[in-house]
Structure to design on (159 residues):
């Protein structure tokens, strides 16, 4: 794990997970304010680009050589399209479907796709076969998400 303790990676991963619903809620809110979810997604993507560029420059990562860039595949570049799809989906669906519902289905998709990516070592990821224990864990997580979202759907506002 490149010298960092597991807790460090877990904390950053948890923070990223915490921020996914925040991103969906803020993107949806921006889309409602502008009455245009597509413009909202474009504004969020612009902020994303500016932030990543600033961090890259601050970390000295702008020193990428042309020979390395020539090794980049179209499939790797598709990651930008995947991020755009998520942003557009969040900005459009969160105000219509609810942030909780949106994130619940995002999480279900993440559970399935991450298990497949790990199991088959797709996209250069380390291959980690999915066994019965991991399938059980994924099922428990999925059931937990459904229960939590069902409980939230049945809650009446106070007042």
């Amino acid at each position: 794990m490149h010298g960092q303790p597991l807790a460090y990676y877990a904390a950053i991963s948890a923070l990223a997970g915490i921020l996914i619903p925040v991103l969906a809620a803020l993107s949806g809110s921006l889309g409602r304010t502008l009455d245009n979810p597509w413009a909202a997604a474009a504004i969020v993507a612009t902020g994303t680009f500016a932030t990543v560029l600033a961090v890259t420059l601050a970390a000295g990562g702008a020193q990428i050589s042309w020979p390395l860039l020539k090794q980049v595949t179209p499939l790797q570049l598709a990651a930008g399209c995947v991020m755009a799809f998520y942003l557009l989906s969040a900005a459009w669906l969160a105000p219509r479907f609810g942030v909780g519902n949106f994130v619940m289905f995002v999480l279900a998709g993440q559970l399935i796709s991450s298990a497949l990516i790990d199991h088959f070592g797709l996209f250069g990821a380390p291959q980690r076969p999915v066994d019965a224990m991991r399938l059980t864990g994924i099922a428990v997580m999925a059931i937990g998400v459904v229960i939590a979202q069902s409980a939230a759907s049945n809650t009446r506002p106070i007042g």
About this structure: Residues 6-154 form one domain.
